[in-house]
## 1
Amino acid sequence: MRPAVRRYQGDLYDALARLRPPLILTILLLLTGTTGYMALDGFPFLDALYMTVISVATVGFGEVHPLSETGRLFTMALIISGFSVFTYSIGVFVEVVTRRDLFGLMGLKRMETRIRTLEDHYIVVGYTAIAHELARVFQRRAITFVVIENEAARLRRLKADAIPYYIQGGYFDNEVYRRAGVETARGIITTFKNDADNITVVVTGRIFEEATGRDLFIVSTCSDAQAKARLERVGADYVISPDSLIGTRISALAIRPPHLGQESILERVAFGEHTELDVREVVVAADAPIAGKTIRETDLRRRTGASIVALKHARRRVRINPSPDEPVRAGDSIMVIGTPRQLHRVEGFLSPVAAPAPTPPVPPAPAPPADNA
Amino acid sequence: MDWSKVASIFFILMALTSNASFVYGGDPYNLIITVAMSLIATLLKLGSRKTLGAELMATSLVADLHLIPAMVAFFGFGNVTLATGLAIGALVANLISVALITIDTILDTLKEDQDLF
């Protein structure tokens, strides 16, 4: 596996490298001054160094030992050289700090170092309007993600939103994906309006998957059904049409409108700003404690607080809102709903049941998609 | 000609030769020059993108951390034996540094040849 590229570190070192010439000149000046005073006027080392420093810094302290005429000429030359080096150094330092944004680069380097330690994070390609909403949900639910962005306007928005991890670079540049930690990522999310861009991101993700041998969960948006088919063909795990999603949600509201002047409970619980509701799908392992029992017998609701809202027996249709007497067998998939804490308890309760990888925690849809039923 | 490479190798070699001079002759001027050259060599290696950049930086730091105490021992306490001993340590580090820069140059040349074909 290739080591991750650290571009911000390189940029920082390039900026710091500008400080080398003044530092080298200062060292050479101290060397010349110290050896000069030692040789010309027989100063001991420490006195010679002290004399050099006070001369170079032009502080105006008195001579530590009487100076010969040659020593005075030497001191004058040293003061003039010291002043020139000092002025030059200040200029370079100001240039590095302001024009090269030294402190900004230091911050970016720290961020890049932290990104290298991330695991199971999502890579969000492009900080679009959808990605902006996605980032809000991810931050609220403490899901780690790295944004790849290259456009100045979106970068400004991203910084204004205080996105903790981002990489500035091309959306389809392999090096940028490596810097975003694709080798340890859980998945890639692309939400461009242009389907061709989404297709390229999906293909890039699949290429990395092949190279690293690590499964990536790739989610993409699409403009229409044709694009959805193409994206699925090139390897997207899940393709969502924002238009279709919005239409479904509005129709749900239109069919069963909330009371006038009141917010829909569904809106508040499922899509509210501070909702705690989450759904998760888990596969029942052969040695799971609930395997072979009915939903009632599993006692999941009382023990964890979460509820089973859907069940899918192996090779059979999904049962929405299954009966309490429905048996749960090994290999079945169950969908549980609850708060993140309750869902965490479910994981412990079902141990050693393994969740299907990956299972992104997304807010529940108003109604299960028809093709799942 | 790559002048930054010339400067870098110049100061690394200067640090080595002045260090050897001090170990051989015990002259205080040589020690001061060695320290200055070694510090400049370290500055030039800082943030180097060479193949063996980290190794070069580490050896240079080792040399500095021998030479600065050597200077304190020599001028501060007049302990010539300790100063010479530390300078010998720095000399070893500087020799390794020269060996590393030679290997790095060979690696760079090989890489350039690979890029050409």
## 2
Amino acid sequence: MENSNELSDSIITQNLLPKKFGKRGMLWTSILVAICILGMYAYYRQLRYGLVVTNMRDYVSWGIYISNFVFFVAISLVGSLITAIFRLINVEWSTPLTRIAEIIAVSAITFASIIIVVDMGRPERFMNLFLHGRIQSPIMWDVIVIGTYFFISLLLLYIPLLPDLKILLQQKDKNPNWLNKLYSFLGSFWIGSRLQIALSNRAIQILCILIIPVAFCIHTVTSWLFATTYRPGWDSTNFGAYFISGAFLVGSGGVVVAMYIFRRYYQLEKYITEQHFEKMGKIVVLLCLIYLYFNVNEYLVPAFKMKKAEEKHLNELFTGDFSTMFWFAVIIGMIIPIITLIFKKGRKPFPMFIIGSMIVVGAWFKRYLIVTPTLLNPFLPMQDIPESYKHYFPSWEEWAIAMGSLAGVLLFITFFARIFPIIPIQETITEENAKHK
Amino acid sequence: MSDNSRRDFLFKGLLASASLVGCAEKKNPFDSEENFQLTGEKVKLLSVTGEVIEIDKAYLKPVPDMPPISNEEERRGIPGKKFVMVIDLARCKNLKKCQSACNHMHQLHPGQSWIKVLSMEDSDHTAPYWQPTTCMHCDEPPCVKVCPVDATFKRQDGIVLIDSDRCIGCRFCMAACPYSTRVFNWEEPILTEEVAQKHYSCESSMPQKKGTVGKCDFCPDMTRRGELPHCVSSCPNGVFLFGDMNEDSVTNGAETFRFSELIKDKAGYRLMEDLGTKPSVYYLPPVNRNFPFEEGLENAKPETTE
């Protein structure tokens, strides 16, 4: 018995250790790096010439930078769902998914902060937020809660990583030197003593409880950047709940996509099983239904009354200029996932991967639809302005920066998976052993 | 004077003298006479004691550009005042003199303006009218509420201003303003050299700065001098009436009215009262008009008359 366990321990370790990039890995990484560099060049142009390189103007004063920001904040919420909520309600099968969820959370929230600085007209005055900050502004609330969420997420990524760092350090000969240096810098103090384990469990428990209200705060506050204004389409008491439900959905979609890719690429079929997809599928369909419910609230109630200010905005979404995108986002982001995932066959890995991608793409367009159409429907008519002020389609610089930030998130996750085990080794071993006893 | 502002003052004085020493190697009038080129041309001046004195022209130097009042004072506003504007829609025929004067005086970016004359028609069967729209200088300003850095602020005299030296360019105020009155300097503003070299002042809103928000400021630099805002004085039809609520009087330069009576007699109203923003701009309804609506069409670009 002892023997067989030891054997499986070492197999687990062998299977889950981070691996060097193969050919496909190199190609993937270089494409991402290229997109990032293009984004940086576009940002250099923006710094040099000003925000005039974007197609934002006085009416559409927020564009895809802001919708991208909302998208990143949304997708980062999944860290708290899978790590914290599942842990607190004793969902055991989520162990192999926790680190995937947490790295998505950390990298998305990092790029959310970056993209918001990119959107600023005077990024060099960023420190004014601390020198002259006023607590009554929802932007200050966002700065505070996003900062807090970032650090809690980072700790929730780091603390469970410590036992795995010890395992990595045990195989020093297999790792390049710089990685060994990194591992020992991060985790050489971890010996795995009973006291350390007790401390770390306690810390994780506290962080898991802390992160839930903070996670709710970050996305509620982000929704309030819109809901605290008077504008039709934003002036809604439904916004906080609507945003949070959408956030859990897109985050879970993102985790499903990542699960599928890591499973294929690293041959993790034994660890991320069909059971995991089955269970995630059920969760995603539930989240879809909740999000659909809030969408009905968000659009049906004002559409029933058709107040004058709302009328133009809603007509543009339902049948006007934005209708293609609106129905596209609704259908691929909610309707098709719900219909597919209620069937057992729909919850197999490959269909789940397709559905997960559809949810993520639909969610990105949904964020665009939340930001832009509202700004094109002000209370007073848009007159006495150049023709270009009356429309909005992002410039190439905006696309490059937005896509660069998305590539940045993926690059972050890719490098992380190259350096650290994407599935917690120690926890998997402990759970395997517990099963055999 | 608070300790802080005194220090500020001393610091600025120090800076000014430092710059004097720094910039004028040959022309410095405080230099000894050996290395100072006298022109021989004399100028008569009145000394502080009241005597007429004569000095060489070479001693004359331009007054260094110093802000007339401190930033703190600009943020506080003019004591005892509560500025108010009344816009008489019955007198407007879309001449847009207000707009061109404002754009010219503030050197706004081509295409952008702080005043817009909107062609309004509230519903299918109601009468169209021209509505000049400025910043409303709300008493409950949504833009001020959302500003994270106190770059836009409400003064004690009722004016809502922007400090372009502090603005971070997040544009939350633009999203928050229901009157869409704010504009953004998307690129480096096109300024005359004279203005570009001026010291920035929140009261003149000049020179405009790239990456910051701008809007109608009720021209506090003019009111401080006892003059009317540019839109008021440039309108040939006297549409704009500007004044002080505490004195209960408004004027367009030619006529002066008691504000409360004018609002009562002509049933003045404010825009979007239901939002609770409490604007400082009042409108007089377009009744008994001086001009038919159609007369303004000549001056409207085709796409603006929907």
